[in-house]
Write a structure and sequence with these properties.
By secondary structure, the chain is of the alpha/beta class. It has helices at residues 20-36, 51-62, 97-107, 111-126, 134-144; strands at 8-13, 42-49, 70-74, 88-96. Helix 1 packs parallel to helix 4, helix 3 crosses helix 4 (111-126) and helix 4 packs across helix 5 (134-144). The relative contact order is 0.19.
């Protein structure tokens, strides 16, 4: 079994927002997270969407009828983690740019920072981290900072 050491990910902006500079920063922090987590040979997508679209996903897959900031759909789990031979297909991360904009205003920081934070948060979920239990939350939140 030979893994490529390269990580491949694409960022799709499905909104009307001109956020080219923000996307460059997202890439920088996602690559840093992959290095810090020693991830090699993976592929995944980051899809930037509107509140309306993420609300539909949240309703369909989580039975929650409201928008959220980020949803991750992981393809790996403990049962099939080693299934992929040539690369690790991690899954998809959906981020609401609308929600990121409102949160960046609310928290008093830039949209670049908020989008990067949400991308890293979503990636950590794809890598198996969660924040359901307090102990796990502490570990995940330290990593994402």
């Amino acid at each position: 079994m030979v893994f490529s050491s390269l990580n491949k990910f694409k960022i799709y902006n499905l909104t009307e927002y001109d956020i080219h500079n923000e996307i460059k920063i997202i890439k920088k922090y996602v690559k840093k997270c992959l290095r810090e987590e020693n991830v090699k040979g993976s592929s995944f997508n980051i899809i930037l969407i509107t509140n309306e679209e993420i609300k539909k996903l949240n309703a369909k897959y989580r039975n929650i009828e409201k928008e959220t900031d980020v949803i991750s759909f992981a393809l790996e789990d403990e049962k099939n983690e080693k299934f992929f031979l040539k690369e690790r297909v991690l899954g998809d991360i959906y981020i609401s740019v609308d929600k990121a904009k409102s949160q960046s205003n609310e928290y008093g920081h830039s949209l670049k920072r908020e989008l990067s934070f949400l991308a890293v948060h979503g990636l950590l979920h794809l890598l198996g981290y969660d924040h359901i239990e307090k102990e796990d939350e502490k570990i995940m939140f330290e990593k994402q900072e």
